[in-house]
Amino acid sequence: ANEEPPSTDLITLTRHVLSDQIRLGSSATGDLTLLLNAIQLTSKFIATNVRKARLINLVGLAGETNVQGEEQKKLDVLSNDIMVNALRASGKTAVLVSEELDEAIFIDDPYKGKYCVVFDPLDGSSNIDAGVNIGTIFGIYKVQPESTGTIEDVLRPGREMVAAGYTMYGSSCNLVMSTGNGVNGYTLDAALGEFILTHPNITIPPRGKIYSFNEGNSMYFYPPTTAYLKSIKYPANNKSPYSARYIGSMVADVHRTLLYGGIFGYPSDKKSKSGKLRLLYEAFPMAYLTEQAGGIATTGTQRILDITPKTIHERCPVFLGSRDDVQELMRFYKEVP
Ligand code: AHG
Ligand code: MN
Ligand code: MN
Ligand code: MN
């Protein structure tokens, strides 16, 4: 038959990132490669805890509330600690911002490096105890020239990030990342303990057939959101309506959107005036990946990556996905009062 033998030439995440470094020659120091190695390690470490959470009493609440007023789950706290420890130990970071920490962490010498990492250690907390997909989101800035690492180094538009990505803990563990040169996806081979390139050069289909919103908030939605949703559920000209898919873990909903196309949205509404998702460590990294994959990420009226954050935990409305779908949504935001 036609069967191909198994590959003896695996492209691991480290090899793939290293090949970028080799391509850039002497202008690359290898620091970002080492930082990304530290991030991969945190994802493997979190993944193994997620897998056995039910067995080792890691489900349920930790007993504390974070700065956004959310009850922290044990896995939120554990994942945060795993990331802070590994990022500090990498020697490559200067400033860390986490969903689970009120204030930024400034790394002192001798561990201080040139990069700032903003992260959501565990995304989709409400899904943990049901065994539904959850994830980790990260974005990376380089400190500004001359800076020794201050809050200004992370209060910058998302377009200035040098890399962003997420890891999804699902039926498989997938790390999806961009360093500004397209989007690649890797799958964890648990036996090897390595992320293997399985989704090279991810591009979002220009139009999809799926919408992903928490429609339970419909009574609070503003008219443009409502009118847009109506247009895809009751399309004109005999077209088929869109399918609804909403997991409630941004990582999983965005992952599906990158692969299948369509639109994901968490709008601002009468109850959540700025939306729910956090700009620095949820909206920016996902907007970065979406654009790198050929899609659009907007608040409805503004490109997300152009926003300059004023505070580290601020929120923003998010619509992202296939180019044509998001453009249509933007038209509603322009035309519906
Ligand atoms: P987190 O678990 O990190 O706090 O993030 C939850 C976010 C995001 O994952 C998801 O898209 C959204 O909250 C779901 O919100 P609703 O439950 O309001 O739909
Ligand atoms: Mn949370
Ligand atoms: Mn989150
Ligand atoms: Mn979280």
TrEMBL record:
<dbReference type="InterPro" id="IPR000146">
    <property type="entry name" value="FBPase_class-1"/>
</dbReference>
<dbReference type="InterPro" id="IPR028343">
    <property type="entry name" value="FBPtase"/>
</dbReference>
<keyword id="KW-0119">Carbohydrate metabolism</keyword>
<comment type="pathway">
    <text>Carbohydrate biosynthesis.</text>
</comment>
<keyword id="KW-0378">Hydrolase</keyword>
<dbReference type="Pfam" id="PF18913">
    <property type="entry name" value="FBPase_C"/>
</dbReference>
<dbReference type="GO" id="GO:0005986">
    <property type="term" value="P:sucrose biosynthetic process"/>
</dbReference>
<dbReference type="Pfam" id="PF00316">
    <property type="entry name" value="FBPase"/>
</dbReference>
<dbReference type="GO" id="GO:0006000">
    <property type="term" value="P:fructose metabolic process"/>
</dbReference>
<dbReference type="GO" id="GO:0006094">
    <property type="term" value="P:gluconeogenesis"/>
</dbReference>
<keyword id="KW-0963">Cytoplasm</keyword>
<dbReference type="InterPro" id="IPR044015">
    <property type="entry name" value="FBPase_C_dom"/>
</dbReference>
<dbReference type="GO" id="GO:0030388">
    <property type="term" value="P:fructose 1,6-bisphosphate metabolic process"/>
</dbReference>
<feature type="domain" description="Fructose-1-6-bisphosphatase class I N-terminal">
    <location>
        <begin position="11"/>
        <end position="200"/>
    </location>
</feature>
<dbReference type="GO" id="GO:0005829">
    <property type="term" value="C:cytosol"/>
</dbReference>
<keyword id="KW-0479">Metal-binding</keyword>
<protein>
    <recommendedName>
        <fullName>Fructose-1,6-bisphosphatase</fullName>
        <ecNumber>3.1.3.11</ecNumber>
    </recommendedName>
</protein>
<keyword id="KW-0460">Magnesium</keyword>
<dbReference type="GO" id="GO:0006002">
    <property type="term" value="P:fructose 6-phosphate metabolic process"/>
</dbReference>
<feature type="domain" description="Fructose-1-6-bisphosphatase class 1 C-terminal">
    <location>
        <begin position="204"/>
        <end position="333"/>
    </location>
</feature>
<dbReference type="InterPro" id="IPR020548">
    <property type="entry name" value="Fructose_bisphosphatase_AS"/>
</dbReference>
<dbReference type="GO" id="GO:0042132">
    <property type="term" value="F:fructose 1,6-bisphosphate 1-phosphatase activity"/>
</dbReference>
<comment type="similarity">
    <text>Belongs to the FBPase class 1 family.</text>
</comment>
<dbReference type="InterPro" id="IPR033391">
    <property type="entry name" value="FBPase_N"/>
</dbReference>
<comment type="subunit">
    <text>Homotetramer.</text>
</comment>
<dbReference type="GO" id="GO:0046872">
    <property type="term" value="F:metal ion binding"/>
</dbReference>
